[in-house]
C-alpha cells in the first residue's frame, strides 16, 4: 500500500509503527491503506489481517448520524473527533474516540487520512450511565401521574436498548396479581394477554421474580416458559427475557421485564443499563406512591378532626392543620419553621424542660412514638394531649418526615384523676381510704421483712361522736372530722400515713420506728399516741362554738410474723375495742390473748344467733311477793342451754347480744314468749303481772311500737298484766326520746318499771313525766341496811319518792330476813330475791296454776340441775 502514498505520508506511517495509539490510514474511497501494530491489537487480529478488512466492518452498530459523519469526512476531508462503537474481530465491542487528519499529498485534495483510535470504553460507560440516569430521572423528577412517568421511563430504557421490549408491571395491593403499567417495543396483543391473567395464576418469570425477589432469566424460551402472552412474544421475534423485581422500602413493588431478540445476551453495557433502569424505576414507583401518600396525608391533615403537625427529619415543623390551631391557639406563623425542641409548653419547674427535650430526642431517633404530655395553649392554659408520631420514609428507607397527632385528653385525665381520688381517698377529708391504706401497709410489711425494720399501726376512734352529730347536726360533725384530720396530719412525719376508714375511725401508720419490737419502740409509739390524744382533746372552733372531742386508740406493731395487712388492721381494731371496754380516752397495745377473746365473742355471737332460732333459750321466772310472802308478780328472765357448753349465764351472753345487735331479736322473742305465758295464766284463771326487761337499743329501733302492738294482737295478751323494765343507767341523754316511745306504748296499756333505780342520774322532774307504774330498788342498796347508814337513807328516800309519785316499789336482791323486815317496816310493796325463790323455769314456778300437761319437771341441761 505504501506505493499509493506520498513520501511524507510514508514517513508518517513508519513513525507511527511503534506508537501505543492505534492508527489507521484510509483512502477517500474507504479503503484501508495501512494500520500499525497497536491497531492490530485493538482489532484482535494483527496488523496484517486488520488491514485486509473494509473500514466500515469495524463499525457495524454505528449510529446513522455517526456513519454519515464518517462518510462525509472521507469524501470531503472534514476532520473527525467523535466517539463511536468499535467491533473488533475478536472480543467484545469497545468504544473509541476517533480523530482524523489529512496526510500530505501533491494533489489539491488529500489522497489519504490518518485515523487515530483511543479506547474510551470505561469513560464512555461511566458517562453513558450518568447520562442514562439523568435521562431516566428526568421524568421521575417531574410531578406527573405515575402512569405517565412509567411510560416515559419505558420509552427511555427501550431507546437505550434498541430491539429490546420493555414492560413495567406493578404488584397490586392484594399482592397476588401483577398489572402492566407501561411498555415500550411491545404490541397491544401482549398487554391484552397480560390483562387476561387471573389473580391465582402465578406462572411466568415475572411472578417468580416477585416471589423470589431475585432476577429470573429465560433463555431460548418456548411460549410455555413465558406463561401468559408467550405466543405473542415469540411472534414478535423475542428469544429470551430477564425479569427484575422492583423493590422499595422493605417490600416488592413490581417487576421490570426485558425481552431480547437474541437467545444469549453477554454485554456488560446492557447489564449496566438494566441495573440502572431497575433502580430508577423502583425509585419512580416509590416516589410516586410516597407523593400520593403525602397528598392524601395532606388532604387528611386538613380534614382531620384531630390536631396534626408534620415535621421534617431534623425536627423542623413543616405544617399544621386548622384543628391544631383551634386546639392550641398557635397559628402557622407561630409554629411552622421552628424546631420541636423550642415548642416546650409544659409547666414551669425544675427538670420539666429537660424531660421535654428527652422526649423530643426519643421522637426524632425512632420510627414512631406514643405518649402523653402536658402542653400549654397560646393563652397560657394547660391541657393534656395524647401524642402519636409516625415516621415517613423514602425509597432508601431514610426518615423524611414525622406526622404527629395531638388528641386532647384533658377531660379523660381529669376523669381518671377523679376516679383515682374516689377509689383511693376519702371524699370529705381527702385522706387515704381503707383501700389505699391496705396497699401502703402491704408495702411497709414487705419492706419491714426485707430490711428487718419495725412499723406501727394506730387505730383511732372518737368517743361519743354520735352525740355531736345528734345535738349539733351532721354538718358540724363533718367539719369536726375535717379539722381533726388536719390536726392528725400536722402531728406525724411526711412518710407517715393518716387514713380515714369511715365514720369517726382513723388509722395512723408509722413506718420504720425501730429495728425490733422492744420496750423502747413501744414507748416511742406510746408517746406519739399520747401526743395525738392531747391534740384531739384541744377544742375545735366551729362557727364560733367550741366543741370538745376525745379518742380511744389501739396499737399494733409489725411485722411479727406472716400477718397480712388485713390481719394487722384487725389487731389494731381489737386493741381499740379493749381501750373502749377499759374506759374512754385510753390507749391499748395489741396482745395475742385479745385475739382469743375476740374469737370467743364471735363464736358466742354465732351460737346465740342459732340458739334464738332453734329453741335453745328458755323463759325463767323469779317470783315477787307482797308483805305477807304471797307471790303477786314475777320477773321473766332468759336462760340459754347450749348443747355443748351447758348453761351460759346471762352476764356472759347479754353483753354479746347488746353489742352485736341480737338484743333486738332476743327481746322480741322474750316478749312474745311472755305474752303467750300470760295468756295461758289468764285462761287458767290466774292473772299474774309479768315483768320483761327491754333494752334501750330496742327502743331506738324504727317500728318498735308497731312490733309490740302486733305481738299483743297476735297473742291476745292483756297489756295491763305486762310490765316493761328499763334500766335507769342506760337512759342517759337519750331519755327524752325514750319517754316519747314509752308514752306510745303506755297508750297500748303496757306498764313500765325503772330497774336499778338509784344507780343512774335521772332528773326527778323528767322522771315524773314518764308513764311509770313501779320502780325497783337496786340490790346494791340492800347489802347493809342498818339504822342510820347511807344505804338505809337512800332506800327510805326512794320509798318516799315512790309514795309521792304513787308508784309501786319492788326491792330486788332480798336475801336475808333482816332485809325483808326493814323493807316491810317502811312500806315496800313487793320483795324479790333468793330469800323467797330463785329463778326457775316458768313451768316450774307456775305449775300449781297451769294445766298438768304443760308442766315440765326439773328442766335440766347437760346433766346439771337448774339453779
| Beta content | 15-25%
Supply the CATH superfamily name of the largest domain.
EAL domain
Per CATH, the class of the largest domain reads: Alpha Beta
Tell me the number of helical segments per DSSP (H or I, 4 or more residues long): 30
First-residue to last-residue Cα separation: 163 Å
pLDDT average, as an integer? 82
Helix content: 40-55%
Give the number of domains.
5
CATH topology of the largest domain: TIM Barrel
Helix/strand class: alpha+beta
Under the CATH scheme, which architecture of the largest domain would be assigned?
Alpha-Beta Barrel
Question: What is the number of strand segments?
Answer: 34
Rg calc: 57 Å
Overall geometry = rod-shaped
Quick one: biggest sheet?
A: 10 strands, mixed
Low-confidence stretches: 852-860, 862-867
InterPro entries: Biofilm_reg_signaling (IPR052155), EAL_dom (IPR001633), EAL_sf (IPR035919), GAF-like_dom_sf (IPR029016), GGDEF_dom (IPR000160), Nucleotide_cyclase (IPR029787), PAC (IPR001610), PAS (IPR000014)
Protein name: EAL domain-containing protein
Domain EAL: 601-853
Organism: Marinobacterium rhizophilum
Amino acid at each position: 500500500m505504501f506505493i499509493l502514498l506520498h513520501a511524507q505520508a510514508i514517513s508518517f506511517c513508519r513513525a507511527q509503527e511503534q506508537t501505543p495509539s492505534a492508527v489507521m490510514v484510509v483512502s477517500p474511497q474507504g479503503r484501508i491503506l495501512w494500520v500499525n501494530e497497536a491497531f492490530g491489537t485493538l482489532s484482535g487480529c494483527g496488523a496484517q489481517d486488520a488491514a485486509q478488512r473494509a473500514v466500515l466492518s469495524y463499525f457495524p452498530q454505528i449510529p446513522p448520524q455517526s456513519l454519515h459523519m464518517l462518510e462525509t469526512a472521507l469524501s470531503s476531508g472534514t476532520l473527525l473527533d467523535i466517539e463511536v462503537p468499535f467491533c473488533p474481530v475478536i472480543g467484545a465491542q469497545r468504544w473509541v474516540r476517533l480523530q482524523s487528519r489529512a496526510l500530505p499529498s501533491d494533489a489539491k485534495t488529500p489522497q489519504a487520512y490518518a485515523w487515530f483510535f483511543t479506547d474510551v470504553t470505561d469513560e464512555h460507560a461511566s458517562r453513558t450511565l450518568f447520562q442514562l440516569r439523568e435521562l431516566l430521572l428526568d421524568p421521575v423528577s417531574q410531578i406527573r401521574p405515575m402512569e405517565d412517568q412509567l411510560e416515559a421511563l419505558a420509552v427511555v430504557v427501550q431507546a437505550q436498548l434498541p430491539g429490546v421490549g420493555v414492560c413495567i408491571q406493578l404488584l397490586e395491593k392484594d399482592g397476588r396479581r401483577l398489572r402492566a403499567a407501561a411498555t415500550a417495543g411491545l404490541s397491544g396483543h401482549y398487554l391484552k394477554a397480560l390483562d387476561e391473567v387471573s389473580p391465582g395464576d402465578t406462572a411466568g418469570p415475572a411472578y417468580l421474580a416477585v416471589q423470589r425477589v431475585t432476577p429470573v432469566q429465560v433463555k431460548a424460551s418456548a411460549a410455555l416458559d413465558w406463561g401468559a402472552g408467550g405466543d405473542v412474544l415469540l411472534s414478535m421475534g423475542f428469544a429470551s427475557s430477564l425479569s427484575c423485581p422492583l423493590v422499595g422500602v422493605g417490600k416488592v413493588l413490581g417487576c421490570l421485564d426485558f425481552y431480547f431478540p437474541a437467545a444469549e445476551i453477554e454485554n456488560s453495557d446492557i447489564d449496566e443499563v438494566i441495573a440502572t433502569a431497575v433502580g430508577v424505576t423502583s425509585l419512580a414507583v416509590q416516589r410516586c406512591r410516597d407523593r400520593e401518600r403525602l397528598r392524601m396525608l395532606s388532604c387528611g391533615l386538613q380534614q382531620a378532626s384531630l390536631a396534626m403537625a408534620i415535621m421534617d427529619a431534623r425536627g423542623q415543623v413543616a405544617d399544621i392543620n386548622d384543628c391544631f390551631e383551634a386546639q392550641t391557639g398557635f397559628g402557622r406563623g407561630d409554629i411552622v419553621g421552628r424546631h420541636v425542641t423550642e415548642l416546650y409548653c409544659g409547666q414551669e419547674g425544675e427538670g420539666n424542660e429537660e424531660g421535654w427535650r428527652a422526649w423530643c430526642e426519643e421522637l426524632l431517633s425512632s420510627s414512631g412514638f406514643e405518649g402523653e404530655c402536658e402542653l400549654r395553649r397560646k393563652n397560657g392554659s394547660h391541657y393534656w394531649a395524647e401524642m402519636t408520631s409516625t415516621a415517613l420514609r423514602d425509597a432508601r428507607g431514610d426518615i423524611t418526615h414525622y406526622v404527629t397527632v395531638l388528641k386532647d385528653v384533658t377531660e379523660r385525665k381529669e376523669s381518671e384523676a377523679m376516679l383515682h381520688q374516689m377509689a383511693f381517698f376519702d371524699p370529705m377529708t381527702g385522706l387515704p381510704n381503707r383501700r389505699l391504706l391496705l396497699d401502703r401497709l402491704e408495702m411497709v410489711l414487705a419492706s419491714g421483712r426485707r430490711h428487718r425494720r419495725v412499723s406501727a399501726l394506730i387505730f383511732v376512734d372518737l368517743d361519743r361522736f354520735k352525740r355531736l352529730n345528734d345535738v349539733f347536726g351532721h354538718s358540724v360533725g363533718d367539719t369536726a372530722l375535717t379539722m381533726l384530720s388536719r390536726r392528725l396530719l400536722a402531728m406525724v412525719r411526711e412518710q407517715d400515713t393518716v387514713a380515714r376508714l369511715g365514720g369517726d375511725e382513723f388509722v395512723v401508720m408509722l413506718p420504720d420506728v425501730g429495728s425490733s419490737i422492744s420496750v423502747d419502740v413501744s414507748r416511742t409509739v406510746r408517746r406519739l399516741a399520747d401526743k395525738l390524744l392531747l391534740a384531739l382533746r384541744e377544742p375545735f372552733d366551729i362557727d364560733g362554738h367550741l366543741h370538745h372531742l376525745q379518742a380511744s386508740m389501739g396499737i399494733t406493731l409489725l411485722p411479727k410474723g406472716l400477718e397480712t395487712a388485713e390481719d394487722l388492721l384487725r389487731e389494731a381494731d381489737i386493741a381499740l375495742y379493749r381501750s373502749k371496754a377499759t374506759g374512754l380516752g385510753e390507749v391499748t397495745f395489741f396482745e395475742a390473748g385479745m385475739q382469743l377473746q375476740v374469737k370467743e365473742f364471735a363464736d358466742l355471737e354465732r351460737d346465740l344467733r342459732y340458739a334464738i332460732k332453734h329453741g335453745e333459750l328458755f323463759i325463767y321466772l323469779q317470783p315477787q311477793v307482797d308483805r305477807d310472802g304471797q307471790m303477786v308478780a314475777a320477773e321473766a328472765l332468759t336462760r340459754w342451754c347450749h348443747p355443748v357448753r351447758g348453761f351460759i349465764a346471762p352476764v356472759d351472753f347479754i353483753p354479746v347480744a347488746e353489742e352485736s345487735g341480737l338484743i333486738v331479736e332476743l327481746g322480741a322473742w322474750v316478749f312474745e314468749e311472755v305474752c303467750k305465758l300470760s295468756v295461758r295464766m289468764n285462761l287458767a284463771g290466774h292473772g299474774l303481772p309479768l315483768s320483761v326487761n327491754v333494752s334501750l337499743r330496742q327502743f331506738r329501733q324504727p317500728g318498735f311500737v308497731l312490733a309490740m302492738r302486733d305481738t299483743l294482737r297476735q297473742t291476745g295478751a292483756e297489756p295491763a298484766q305486762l310490765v316493761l323494765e328499763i334500766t335507769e343507767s342506760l337512759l342517759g341523754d337519750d331519755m327524752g326520746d325514750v319517754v316519747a316511745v314509752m308514752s306510745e306504748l303506755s297508750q297500748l296499756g303496757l306498764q313500765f318499771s325503772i330497774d336499778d333505780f338509784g344507780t343512774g342520774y335521772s332528773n326527778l322532774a323528767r322522771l315524773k313525766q314518764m308513764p311509770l307504774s313501779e320502780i325497783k330498788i337496786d340490790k346494791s342498796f340492800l347489802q347493809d341496811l342498818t339504822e342510820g347508814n347511807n344505804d338505809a337513807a337512800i332506800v327510805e328516800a326512794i320509798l318516799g319518792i315512790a309514795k309521792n309519785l304513787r308508784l309501786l316499789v319492788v326491792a330486788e336482791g332480798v336475801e336475808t330476813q333482816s332485809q325483808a323486815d326493814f323493807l316491810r317496816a317502811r312500806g315496800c310493796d313487793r320483795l324479790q330475791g333468793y330469800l323467797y325463790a330463785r329463778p326457775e323455769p316458768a313451768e316450774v314456778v307456775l305449775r300449781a296454776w297451769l294445766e298438768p300437761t304443760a308442766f315440765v319437771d326439773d328442766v335440766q341441761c347437760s346433766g346439771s340441775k337448774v339453779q
